[in-house]
Amino acid sequence: MSSDFFKKILLYLTRVQENRVFIITSLYNLFFIDKEIYMKKSFVMITLASFLLAGCGSTNNSKVVDKGSNKVTYDFSSFNKVTPDIYTEESAKEVIKESTYNFVLLGANDAQKYLLSQIVNAHLTGIGYTVEDGIKEVLQGSGYTLCKVRPVEVFNLLRKPLPSVHYNFSSIKLQDALQVLAGSDFSLIANHKIREVCYKVKGKK
Description:
Elements: H1 3-57, E1 63-66, E2 71-74, E3 94-97, E4 103-106, H2 110-113, E5 119-123, H3 131-139, E6 145-146, H4 152-158, E7 168-173, H5 174-182, E8 186-191, E9 196-201
Parallel strand pairs: 6-9
Antiparallel strand pairs: 1-2, 3-4, 5-7, 8-9
Helix pairs in contact: 3-5
């Protein structure tokens, strides 16, 4: 046999050996290195999922759902009433001394307890405002909003041009400003549960 034949066989075996090394290396990367990366990613995902499930699993113990009627009720037996109730009970006024000549009366003032009694300031610049614009301006930051469902008389009132004397209000109670903006023929009404104000024609149910 010629030397060329042996060279070809040797070259073939060398390539086979290189392929074997490549295959073994690839399998190692697949089952060990990639697996290690995969396991690290899996660990992160499992940990994150555990936190999310823990958050979703915490329920409001005061909420009870009646499966029969599908009604939601609330059990507040584990809650205690806070006393005194500043809206129904008289409490003694507390005074603290801040400095030699400075004393401070503790407790909420009337404007904080009764939001419609808070003092407001409103200043509109420019022209072309409506009564509704003026009402919304004095309501800004008050905690109350203007009702969206309105009688036709109120709807027509709110579309009227805002009188120029109502462009500026300085140091006035909120409820007073709201009554002034509507005029003498309308009564100011309020839903304190949802903190909305509205109007109705006086003498009309």
